[in-house]
Design brief:
two-stranded antiparallel ribbon; 35% strand; transmembrane helix; 72 residues; alpha+beta; DUF3185 domain-containing protein
Length: 72
Amino acid sequence: MKSSVIIGIILIALGTAGLFYKGFSYESKETVAKIGSLEASAEVTKDVEIPQVLSIILIVAGAGIALVGLKK
């Protein structure tokens, strides 16, 4: 299989996953207060949303790259 076809398939898979999983969240440790050598920190959950337009663009681009790779 040509590398462009594989890249196209990966882009299609990422775009499809973006459509189903509209986002993800992760936890990070942030410093809340710092007084001298004393430091207070807290775990904060952050949400990241994946735009639907980006997922569609990935699917279309992946299909285009895969088709070009198959024609060569």
